[in-house]
Amino acid sequence: MKYFASGKQTVYPEDYKTKVEFLRKSQEWLKRKEAEGIVESAYSFTAGGGFIVFDVSSHNELVENLIDFPMYCLCEFTVQPLVTFHDNADFIINEFRKCGAYREENPDEYLSHCVYA
Predict the structure, then answer these.
(1) Using an 8 Å Cβ cutoff, are 19 and 83 in contact?
(2) At residue 85, does pLDDT exceed 90?
């Protein structure tokens, strides 16, 4: 299961030595988690904050890894589960079929009792 974890630093250490230590530990952590296949990618936003894409087997594993991130104590995160575009599109098309809103033999026919929003 993949998750998009977006974070922004909310607590700032007072001295630069501590800031650099958090950044270096976070770099090492990300390299290790990428090598383990737990982190698929990590990016920073130019205006601050960033995101990590996790590939884990459960919600618990996500929480364990997110809390283990060295800068976790300095940041606030929002997390969203991810699904591939193709899988999501197939799921939606199948739901359209189930409720009768779409038929392969007449794709332009639309039944108003089923609406996807």
Answers:
(1) no
(2) yes
2-82 has which CATH code? 3.30.70.1060
Contact 12, 71 (CB under 8 A): no
Within 56-111, strands assigned E span 75-82
Cα separation, 98 vs 74, in Å, equals 47
Tell me the pLDDT tens digit for each residue of 37-50.
999 999 999 999 99
* Count of C-beta atoms within a 10 Å radius of residue 65: 20
Structure tokens at 95: 């739901």
* All structural domains of the chain with their residue ranges: 2-82, 84-117
Q: State yes or no: pLDDT of 1 exceeds 60.
A: yes
**Is the pTM here over 0.90, yes or no?**
no
Dihedral pair phi/psi, residue 63, rounded to 5° = -60, -45
